[in-house]
Amino acid sequence: MPTLGTLPTRNPELELTFFGQCSAPARAVEVTGVLSVTPEALLEEGVPSTLPDGFVVLIADTVPFRLRGRITVVLEVLLRRMSRDGSAGLIVSAAPGSRQPYPKSLLDMADRLGVPLLVTTAPADRWRGVHEAIQQFRIASAERRAAQLASLVQELPARLADPRAMQRIADWLARALDVQVMVSEPDRVLVASPATAAEELAQAIIRQSVDGGGPDARSGPHTRLISLGPSSAADTVLAVARRTPFDDADLALLRQAAKLLGLVDQARREYRAASDAARAACGAAVELLLDGEVSKARRVMRNLAPGLLDPETARVFVVETSPTRRDAAVRRCEAVTAGRALVVADARRDDRILVIHPVRAVEADEKVAVELTRLVSVLGAEASLGGSGVYSLSLLARALHEATTAQRFAVHQPDSVALSVQDTDLVSLLPAHDAQVWARRLLDPLMRIDSQWELLRETLPTALAYPYTVAARRLDLHRNTVTRRVARAAELLNKDFAALTDRVTVGLALEIVTQRELPEPPAGCLESGEPTLRGLLEGPQTRAWAEMLLRPACADKRDLLTTATAWLTFDAHLESTARELGLSEATVRSHIRALEGHLSRDLSSLSGMRDLLFALHLMTGVPQLPDSSRELCAAA
Fold first, then answer.
1. Which of 56, 93, 340, 586 has the highest CB neighbour number within 10 Å of its CB?
2. By the 8 A CB rule, do 564 and 591 touch?
């Protein structure tokens, strides 16, 4: 929109200059049109009763005239009416080089009334079309502003608490006015458009805080700061800057955008306060559950999540991520669980999230586990997930312990997820190349002759796992044949297959060689030394696996692990174990059955006894394992 100050510069052909002093506010007055009158008309018809707001009054004739006599009286009346009706200024035509076109009395009156005076030396015909041009410009500006406001309305979010709403409005404002935009609080930037705007506008914010500027302040030649709150003390500020000045229309649009941003900011604050209150309630409920106060936890969550804690059982999941990304991860966990679980940031660790998923004992609801697994894969390598089994709500602390152990185990898994130790295969946790080297060296005496190896690789796995009579029946061989082949293998390997540790060790080596489709390692010993069974089991992932496997048994009031250690030391013989522990065979048998339930393992099988033996060795150091590596290198 043209102003009194820009009219001379934008229209040099009008030869328009200010007469006398003109204040900066007067120069900024918008010019909405031109009212042309002649001295004769003023003298004959008098001053119009009303004058259009914002118009400049042009007194022009075909030849310059002198402001003397009766015309000065009429002009005094005109000045008063212009002051009353808000006219922009008075322009008279004067001869080029005229030193005093206005008499002193008019100058004093204009100064007193605040009406700017201008002089034009251009012929009257040059003013033709100026009024029409101003009107066309005003119409185009109005249409443009209407379109901008309509576009701004389109940016209204469906939810004021939409976390992207403020950024979208800032992006729109940056495009509409070609400005840099930043919305900030004292301690952080909420949104910026473009992204580099924060650096450029930071100084404006600092200057305002130092100078104590008002809510709608200028902090630079073309910078504006607008408070988004109802008072100047509000924390959230809209800062905009550009290379060219802002006109009134620009400022009006800024104020409209600021109102909308203020509503979004208010909704954001209220939503955050409500969310913080809800999260605090969820956190309190989780703490009560971990303390076994189930009824109190249900009362806390009754209104917040009706029915969520009605089931008597639950699973616990532990999500670990970087501390800087935990808040975002909490929100994503809340989104994927969709009200089916309690999600809280762990108050004890700044990198951990707890998810309590109540489940009914008769249902197998894996949706939460599946969604959390998918989320962890999206969060990246720094995230991991551990899960517990189904526990009574009153035993949730145990479930958390199991889930925490599982999470530590998950860190060593390819997908960073461990939801059930029962489904974890020990062999898959061993270093593949070293395991192959160890197994092939151990079995080297059996593998040297192909025909011998073919017979033994078919017989030994079954013969080591079952009594020879059962193994013969399963292999469709005579019992004597099985006995003879096993004795030959024991002789070649220098092993006593009556000893459980020897059976387990050879059985593991056979599984690695015969069931794992891995390339045979190159001939020659490893630079780091020859692999040993103890060395293979010393990895952090196997230790985490052992801790997780034995955790349920450790929680049993009976001393199951002492029974298990003795039972394995006496090669799974009940009588010797009972005598050593001073228990009855029935008690030992009941302990073994309880262990099977806790471990989800069949302890009558070689693989079940192997997992128990290795887990006990890793966690307690007993039973002892043989150092079964050989000083030979595998053949190429």
1. 56
2. yes
